[in-house]
Every structure is written in structure tokens, then in C-alpha cells.
Amino acid sequence: MTNDHQGTDTTWFRGLGLGVFIHWGHASTRGWELSWQMTGGVTLQEPALEPVGCEEYFANAATFDPADFDPAAWAELAWRAGARYMVFTAKHHDGFAMFATALSDYSVVKQAPFGRDVTAEIVEAFRARGFRIGLYYSIVDWHHPDYPRFTDETISKPYVVGDYPRAPEKWERYRGFMLGQLDELLTGYGEIDLIWLDGEFEHTEAEWRFAEIREFIRDRQPAALVNDRCVGHGDFATPEQQLPMVAPERPWEACITMNSTWGYVPWDETWKSPATILHTAIESVSMGGNLLLNIAPRGDGSLPPEAVERLEALARWHGRHAESVQGVEPGLELWQFHGPSTRRTREDGGTRVYLHLTARPYERAVVRGIPVKRVESVSLLSDGRALPFTVQQRLSDIHARTQDPFGELRITVDSDLLDPLCTVLAVDLAAADPDIHGGVTP
Predict the structure, then answer these.
(1) What residues contact residue 50 under an 8 Å CB cut-off, 6+ apart?
(2) How far is the C-alpha of 263 from the C-alpha of 123, rounded, in Å?
(3) pTM exceeds 0.85 for this model
């Protein structure tokens, strides 16, 4: 499927299932939330953050020297957990470039002791492992003098959306700088699959001129998708921190943290359980979207143990159930099965439906409104063992002697077989017989 408005191919993006969002910067050395620590967070938004002076925050770049930086290890763990695309914060709102930019001295290469192009090394490692590559770039820059630079006197603490310093006389010069950095990312790191813009909430659409930004990106990376924060010109939607109430009509991903903060914040102990994270990923896929799960490395380059524990749990589950969440489509309607489900078309034209059992207790799973004579088998996806089931035609089809009747499928699930995170049942349905009028695969 393509985006009709812009013609960009989004087929590959649908069905990826899981991606990893990597928020990392010099603030991680202090356990500060990226950028937002200097504003004390956002008014009325959790979690509340202790504000740090702007100049103290900016100066912290001189402490960034991650001795344990190992992007290949990050990529391997994320791949085993089921992720197939990544998005890395090449520059957040604070203006600190995690890449080699010729347009600013405020970068990991020039300002930090580390002195290496972190973005290049991460892109290389994840690309080598097989990931689709995404780069996050904030179009605002709270450090740049032309933006203008944030100071303790010019910003609200906590931040008030819509209230920020302005320098109209410097705007075009700043916008040229912003596009210049985008050009560096678009031309210096090979083929990029996703450009994940952010910061659209400061300045108007007329000031940003999003149509020009989108064309600027297309000219340099014709196949790259751009998110909806390129307002009015995005290829996919990005609901944040919660699943959408209704699935967007266009491609989408939900970007969600493992705890409550995006960067490494050691006091944030609101870690979601592995089951909660997995169920969110499954629900995203069953609604036709992806989950972009955040990972926040520590200042030394290592991953927090809590993040590793959750990714390892996902990896164990993924090793047995990958086919139910990768390269699949949404499955049944909720009235047919009270839980998330996915499906794929088999090579022989039949259908395999995956039922994800996310609630307890359950000794029996019921599926309604399917062609019951076409049910070939029901099995436990983790090991392929057959499960007992019965089918019952709806009464109207019995009376009408319907050749391809619909009805209910009832599956017995022994409690000893339940997966601690999520049990998946595979229901195989034969293809509809073309000689039977009105045969419809669910």
C-alpha cells in the first residue's frame, strides 16, 4: 500500500511489528531526562522533573565519554527481542548533535571527550544486523543562538506548551542551519528508511514550511518515510505513550517508554512489566500498527539492567511466537474473539489465524463468525502440539443446508500449557472452495 498523497511506498513498514527507539545524549551521564530536565518537565505532564540550569545542562556535554558503548550488542539484543527497525536520536531539542556536523561545535565529535560519530557507529551496527534504519531529528534547537538559545530567564519552568523564546529576525538563518543539519544526516549515512522529526510544537506551520521540508527530504532520500510531525506531509502516524483508541487509517506506530521517561533517569522506577510491554506490542500489531519501544542507554553506554531484563523476556517469547507478530495483518473482529489476533495467508491459499491469550483465567477460547467446516486444525504455536476443539454451525446455516456454514469454534486449553507472558493459538483454515457460492474467508 502507498500513501496516495505523496506516493511513498509504506508496504514494508506495515507488519514490522516491533522497533526500538534509542534516546541517548550527554544528559544520560547525569541521569537527566533529555532536554526536558532544563525546563523541569512540562506543565501538568508526568513525571515532574527537578529543573537544571540551562548553562549547567549545556556544559554537561563535556562529560560524555561512554566507555561501554557497544552498538553491535544493542542491535543483537534488540533483534532477538523481535525488533526489525530502529530510530536513533541524532539530535534532540537540546541541540547536542550525536553525529559529525560541520555546522555546530555543539556535538559529540567536537564537544565531548568521546569524539566519535555515535550516529555513524549505531547506524552501521544496526544495518549490519538487518534493521531498517531511522533517524530522529528535532527541528528545534534550544542551544543555537539563532533559535534563540534557551536561558533560565527566557523559559518557563516547568515548560508551558506554546510559550518559548522567539527571534523573528533570526528565523530564516536558523531555518537554514536546521536544513543544513538535515542534509548532513540525509547524505552522510547511507540509505535511511525513516526520518523521525520532532519539535513541531514550537513555531507555526507557516514558519516551518513543512511542505518544503518534506520535499527537501524526498530529494535526498526518495524512499524514506517521514512521520506525521512533519505536519500535513507525514507518511505515518505516531501516537505517543498510549495506543490509539481507534487505529489510524494510515500506517502508524505507537512510541512508548519502558518506564515513564525517554532518557536514562535512574530514579524513574515505574518500569512496565514484560507482559505489559509484550501485550502492548501484540495489541499494536493486531490493530495494524507497530510498537516503537524506547531504550535509554546509560551515560557509559551500557543498557540499564531493567531494560535488558525486559528485552530478554521478549526475546524468549519471540523465539517461539515470532510468526504471530511479524509480517501479519489484523485478525478477527473483537466480537469474533475477545482478544488481540493476527492472520496471514498461507502458500496454499488458506489462512492461519493467531489468537493471543492475554487475559486469565482461560481454559477455553471461543471464536465466533468463522467458516467452521474449513477449520483444519488448532495448535499451540510455541511447540505445534494439537489442541482439542469443537465447532458448531449457526442454526440458520443448518436449516438452509449451507455448504460453507459459519458458526463457533471452541478450543480447550490445558492450564499447564499456558505461556507466562502470552499463549498463542494457531487456527488453520482451508481456502474457500470457489465452486461454493458466497464462500468467504474471515
Answers:
(1) 37, 40
(2) 19
(3) yes
